[in-house]
Amino acid sequence: MMMKAVVIRVPGAPGVLTLEDRPIPGSRPGWVRIRVRAFGLNRSELFTRQGHSPNVSFPRILGIEAVGEVDDDPSGRFARGDTVATAMGSMGRAFDGGYAEYTSVPVGQVMKLRTRLSWAELGALPEMVQTANGALTRALRIAAGESLLIRGGTTSVGLTAAGLAKAAGLTVAATTRNPDRAGLLKDAGADQVVIDDGQIAGQVRELVPGGVNKVLELVGTTTLKDSLRATAEGGIVAMTGMVGNAWSFDSFSPMEAIPTAVSLTTYAGDADDFMATPLQDFIDAVEAGRATIPSGPVFPLDRIVEAHETMESNRAGGKIVVVT
Predict the structure, then answer these.
(1) Residue 260's CB: how many other CB atoms inside 10 A?
(2) Cis peptide before 259 (omega within 30 of 0)
(3) pLDDT in tens, 179-199
(4) Burial level of 54, CB count in 10 A (0-12/13-18/19+)?
(5) 2-126+270-323 adopts what CATH topology?
(6) Predicted model pTM
């Protein structure tokens, strides 16, 4: 039995992703085979496609998340046809991931869901909600009454985090380089919008005297030092994204870059973090009208190159989803 899958054989530009016929994964004890119905695109997959992910060998089927229906589970934990989501746990890196009509993943990273959402809507959620929730609760340890700055607010994770943080009782400021997107940020839950020219620490401290309590840094090293300067004593900055396309500094002096008594941490998440994500609660909130999905373009599998081009150019305006 064969399936359609997106295969990368050498790193490079979006055009290195090719649609091929590949064997459907076989039944395997301890693993669940999923008929993939949709998957979201993630910056880490762009990073891997460009050849920057260590220990990833090619050829490979990328994709760190997927939603769909259980096709085979030797353990009996799931029934055939169950609606499920999976994410992380070396998907698309150590083993083939979600850019295919079928994927096989360890049973311990599969979550059963109840939902009336479409596959395109559901496909936007697993990694996006995991990252936003995990960064806020595990890395930043947010609490009601605190102030939060989301650097890179118009990313799908940023928009999701704004809604989660507002619901948790925080005052939220979010950044964008484009003034036309201020309304998008306000609709997502931001109380204040900061137009980002790369140096906003002074502006943030005018809005929040003394600086913000917490910063979710989604742009990366290009703005990290400025985000640290915008943070109050005792605050926390969590580097979580890299839409600025830079993970590392050419040089970094911690004594110069990190203000006294400001903490710097990171959040990436793994399969255990995904399984601890209250994804069902978020789905229920969406269906009840209490939360929204920051949806972006939806592509069919055979337009994966265009989907990656859209992600790389930062013109999505929400979570990019591919349906199979």
Answers:
(1) 6
(2) no
(3) 999 999 999 999 999 999 999
(4) exposed
(5) Quinone Oxidoreductase; Chain A, domain 1 (3.90.180)
(6) 0.94
